[in-house]
Description:
Domain Pirin C-terminal: 154-249
Shape: globular
Number of strands: 26
Binding site for Fe cation: 40, 42, 84, 86
CATH topology: Jelly Rolls
Low-confidence stretches: none
Helix content: under 10%
Keywords: Iron, Metal-binding
Protein name: Pirin family protein
Strand content: over 45%
Family: Belongs to the pirin family.
Amino acid sequence: xxxxxxxxxxxxxxxxxxxxxxxxxxxxxxxxxxxxxxxxxxxxxxxxxxxxxxxxxxxxxxxxxxxxxxxxxxxxxxxxxxxxxxxxxxxxxxxxxxxxxxxxxxxxxxxxxxxxxxxxxxxxxxxxxxxxxxxxxxxxxxxxxxxxxxxxxxxxxxxxxxxxxxxxxxxxxxxxxxxxxxxxxxxxxxxxxxxxxxxxxxxxxxxxxxxxxxxxxxxxxxxxxxxxxxxxxxxxxxxxxxxxxxxxxxxxxxxxxxxxxxxxxxxxxxxxxxxxxxxxxxxxxxxxxxxxxx
Length: 294
């Protein structure tokens, strides 16, 4: 699949608590094979799936079996430990969307794993439509529970349309342009780019040349250092090493790596019921200590 990793980047690790934004597609499934991500673990974060086109089947070790569809918000909390799989459905012709992570603050990093689903009501205005999937924007507020203040929304602008957004000045924001052409104040944003706006912005005007699809994220500066490695967000090198070792221990029976996820040994990360794909072993740790991001 075609994936553009827009966050983290060399000079920007977080936008609020958002610590990871993968922007993918559109990709024809007949050529790429689609998405087939076997069971794998997470700690210390929440995952956000937001699709533009396609459909993905989600299964996790809390017993949740859900479909990810365009315009529907899915938030999975890893907390102290969860495992899940993501597989595009046979009827999917093209996959296109964003996969994002939210770092959990220190006081919530070990919460119980869980899953929330929300279908935001579309908001319509002159030349634009919006769906607010987390936080508050344009007079709408999502009911989804988060552990730090957050904002997440999809905006659709018609050709030559303009939209004024009133922003929380204590937030920093990221504006990702999926397609079309976009001006943000004095800045021009190209498709696939993520524009960073620091705190202090109370209002911003978005102007589309060609019809634009935009994802807006935001939150107050996170204020904590985190370690990111593979699928884990931790606070210390030792915490990440321990999580890796526990996942690896679950994948072996009598010293042999299992080839069917239903054979995974129950443990910290649980077992993904109904998924037979071979679980994904963790890569080797690097030969140096992990460095924090801030």
